[in-house]
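Quick start: read one record
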Amino acid sequence: MPRRSSESPPSVQPSHPVTLIGKIAEPVTGGLDQVDDYLSSVWEETPNPALSQLVRHILAAGGKKLRPLLTLLSASVHSPADARAVRVAAAIEILHAATLIHDDVIDHAYVRRGVPTANSVWSNTLAVLSGDYLFAKCSHVLAELGDPALVRMLARTVMRMVASETTQFSDIEKMDAVEDEYYRKVQGKTASLFDLCCDGGGLVGGVSTEEQAALRSYG
């Protein structure tokens, strides 16, 4: 019987997710920088100082910016993403921030990404109001682009997310939740936002109907 080698087999080192995302983002790095600049302008232009402070706390928290990345890549199928694509990407990141604020209030969360949540620093009332403001800001940014389809996409996404969150609480006492129901919740709360990224990005990027359907399915 052959002796087993004492040497450990070479291990395969997985790609670091942040490094991988960085490589994927290379074609739209400039656009992502413009998204960050636009997000900074949101809190700078907020008229109420207290509200401005809350909005800055939320939008400056950082993150991988996956949603703006998906939006800009979807808008770059045929040509580089333009200013309209940057606005859509920024609007979706604003929407994402608004949903996180409300989630933190609902879940009684006090820390997110190592940073105190808005509701823990200020109050549930001010956190909810700042989330409402960001929902309205997102709608305003998309409406200014002059394409009603973008606003319809936003409304559809928010309705799906709220319906999914409501389902979660209506089933909170059920201990026999099935796998299909779990995935429906994930699709409503998380996947619907990625759907909006790809769908909205493709729309402003001028893709064909078939390409937009494929992007939407991917999201």
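The radius of gyration is 20 Å.
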